[in-house]
Structures are given as structure tokens and as C-alpha cells.
Amino acid sequence: MKTKINLPDDRIPKQWYNIIPDMPAPLAPVIHPGSLEPVSPNDLLPLFPPQLIEQEVSSKRWIDIPDEVREILSLWRPSPLFRAKRLEKELKTPAKIYYKYEGVSPAGSHKPNTAVPQAYYNKIYGTKRIASETGAGQWGSSIALACQFFGLECTVYMVKISFVQKPYRKSMMQLWGAEVVPSPSNRTKAGQAILDKDPESHGSLGIAISEAVEDAYSREDTRYSLGSVLNHVCLHQTIIGLEAKEQMQIAGAYPDIVIGCHGGGSNFAGLAFPFVSDMANGKAMRIIAAEPVSCPTLSKGAYEFDYGDTAKMAPIARMYTLGHDFMPPGIHAGGLRYHGAAPLVSQLVQAGIVEAKALGQLECFEAAIQFSRSEGIIPAPESSHAIRAAIDEAILAREEGQEKTILFNLSGHGHVDMAAYDAFFAGELNNYEYPEDAIKSSLSRLPNVKIS
Hints:
about 450 residues; about 15% strand; 4-stranded parallel sheet; Rossmann fold; 7-stranded mixed sheet; globular; alpha/beta
């Protein structure tokens, strides 16, 4: 049995899989934050090029990947699938554990899978500059890389606590030519308003999104780019699951359980959505979204319409949310800090097709260390949530004496996130469960959207 399963370069998928035609019910409309009415394509043009808007609402099951995009993706795709034999042996489990490894990209994560097509479509539309945001830095480094490939200027508003905790992510963005601004900043009205209230604000993804959106609205040559949540982002990431299905077939196996870590939903959707399509055709399996207890969007959030950002400038979507002014704790080292979840993932959770599991960061770091000591790869802190969930399922299989096949997405490496591991070894991290009263307070300020 092979430990590593590769696909030849010519097996990079030629089409993305669009899950919208296979969803259990029609999607709720996206709402304009000003009028509180459904948005039109023209409403989105100041933010996105028309090709991405078309993909956002497309009902086509398969969408062609441009040759120019596949050429760049071929620098690291197809990514390898591994059988975690050494971890299985350590766990003494009858389960077979496979993981799709996205850390082989130049930016070290899955994020370039959508950064590259987003930069491409902006380039051919005539965009000169991209404004975006980043939390833990994986997205910021990826969009900086993609903009460099296509000769676009790039400004990234980086959540301030990550700007401090993850300096090498900032350095990666700067190496690839991006301007990196700690958020909240005095560069925008949205950022200044936060600083006026709290000059020591750690920032949040919601705030950073507000700043990037305001930046994009303010300049004709600039468009906005988002690394998660939106339909077209989830679409681009399905290249992960499409490759994984072919690799699992080569391995002569099919997963009983599919697991991905969940923040906004992009890497989870990338692995899971192609398997959800199999469920729609009668395949029996469990699909688990693993998230942190300090940002329990799917586990404790409300399935409601909410703003995508703190300043209420971005479109409103129906999703699981902790409230647009949710402020994650600065002590949380594992990323996955966004207040909302991808509408597509949210609907699948609401329908009972996807399970949500919230995990503490100490247990996740312990799992990452166990994985690294058996398999060799140092995982990104975000990916540790998927590893923890996979280990838990493998232990359960051992206790129940059942053979299971588990597949998870190792969404990136942790080479530039070692400060988080340093903090763990120094005993400076702890589990933080976001207070129920804080969630209730934030949810009390959701927009009053009435859609029949």
C-alpha cells in the first residue's frame, strides 16, 4: 500500500465543481447593506469583476478553469494524498487515515487555489490594484503571490493581533510586493472609527474586511478580493476534493468520514463539496467541519442574515454567524476567527448534511504535535483542528472495533507559524470558550432583513 499517492501533472482538473445545482434547497438572496433589498450584479461591480460575479450566482454544475490559471496551478498541483500509516500505528486504530496536503503551494496553504483565478479575472477585466484583508496571514500571502504573478498592485489589511503574532506572514506578503497595513488603521473611516472607540483594539476579520471594502470603493482602479466565504471562492477550492476523489480511487478506498477545519469555509468546502455530491447520489458518509470553541460560528451561531463586515459595508448573506461585531480573543493562536460562515456550508449544516464540531486550541495543538512527530509535517495551527477531529474519530474506531476510512484536509504547513507552537510549549496558551452572553449581545444587532 502506497504512503503517497500522486497524480500526473496533466490530471489537474479542467473544471471546477459548482455545488449550487445540488444544494438541498435554493439559496437565500444576497442583500444590499443599504437598501436591504436583493443585490443586482451592477451592485457588485465596484467590488468584483463580472466573471467572478457570474460564478457567484451560476447554476452550471461544471465551470471551465482557464488555461492561464491551470498553468500557474501546475507549479504545485496536483497536490499529494498521503496515507498516515505511522499515525495509525501510534493510535493503534483499525481506521485508515488519509490526508490531502495543501502545504506544497508556494504560499504554503490551500489559499492560492482561489487567489490565482481571482487575480486572473481581475487582470483581464482591467483592474490595476487589489485591496484585501487577512487574519492569520495565509490569505494575505496568497493574494500577494497571485497579484505578483499577474502584475497587480496589492494592499492587505492584516488583523492587528496577527500582524504582531505572525511577523513572517507579513514578510511573505512584502516579499511578493504587497503593502501590509495593520487593521484597524487610520487609513480608512471604518478603521478610524474603531480606533476612536478602542485605541488598543486587536482587530478582527470583520474590521479588516470593512477597511478593504472601503478602500476598493474609493478607487476606480481597485477591486476587492476575499479568501473565503463567497460561492466563487468555494468553487475554486473544489479542485482539492476533485483530485482527492481520483487519488482515493487509486488507493482503492473511499472515505466513511471527510473532515476539514472551518473558519470561513473555503478549505472545508474545497475538500468536502465534491463528496457532498456523492451523498446526493446515495453514498453514505459523515462530513465534519472542525472549528475552534473560541469562535464557534457553526456550533453556537445563529442561521440568520448578517453583514459580512463590522462597518456594514459588505453585502448581507444568510449564514451561521456570531454577529458582525464579534471580537475574537487575542489569545487564540489558531486562526479561523471569522464571525460568519460560507452561506453554502451554512445551508448544508442547517440541512443536517454537514456536522459541526468545536474544539479547544490546547487539544488541537496536542494533535498537531502528535501528527508532526509521527508523520513529519508541521501543520498550520488552523489545520490542527482537522487533525484533532480525525484523531478523535480514529480513536473512536479503535474503541468500537470498527474499520473506518478517514480523509481530512491538511490545509497548510506551520513553518511561519512557529510562534504559536513556542507559546504552546511555554504554557502561554489556554482554552477559551467564547461567552454565551457575548454571543447573545452580538446577535442582538443583526440586520432586520425580511425576505418572503
